[in-house]
Specification:
Keywords: DNA-binding, Transcription, Transcription regulation. With 134 residues, the chain is mostly helical. Helices cover 55% and strands 10% of the residues. It is elongated.
Length: 134
């Protein structure tokens, strides 16, 4: 019965990768004409997700600072505050904040970067320093 459920011959849905659904929700919100409700987001994701699943993802994104919300009656309307790159950066910061030795973690990260990424990081750091001096 590999790849089949007990009720018949249909394939089980592919399990999403970590953060994949959050990225899909953010992408839907970026396409929105303005603040939108949970039902609007659910519909854009294909409507096959439970309403509570969509609310859970939106609430997690709100906790991470990737979306904002405002009251609309008894529910909320949602607006993106970060894109997928911003969400990845939030995750990286959260992981870094959880470590006791930030210097060791950053040193390990930087030494493991391929040369092109290391150079890009140096350029971004130089740019951030220059921007801070204005």
């Amino acid at each position: 019965m590999t790849g089949q459920n007990r009720g018949g011959g249909s394939q089980q849905p592919r399990r999403r990768g970590q953060g994949e659904l959050e990225g899909q929700v953010l992408a839907a919100l970026r396409e929105a004409p303005g603040p939108v409700n949970t039902a609007w987001v659910r519909e854009r994701l294909g409507g096959n997700l439970a309403y509570t699943t969509v609310i859970t993802i939106l609430t997690r994104l709100h906790t991470k600072g990737a979306v904002s919300r405002q009251r609309a009656g008894r529910s909320f309307e949602w607006t993106p505050t970060a894109d997928e790159a911003g969400l990845a950066a939030l995750r990286m910061r959260k992981m870094l904040d959880a470590e006791a030795d930030r210097e060791a973690v950053l040193a390990s990260f930087v030494t493991a970067l391929p040369p092109g990424d290391e150079q890009l990081l140096r350029e971004l750091l130089a740019q951030a320093t220059d921007d801070g001096e204005d």
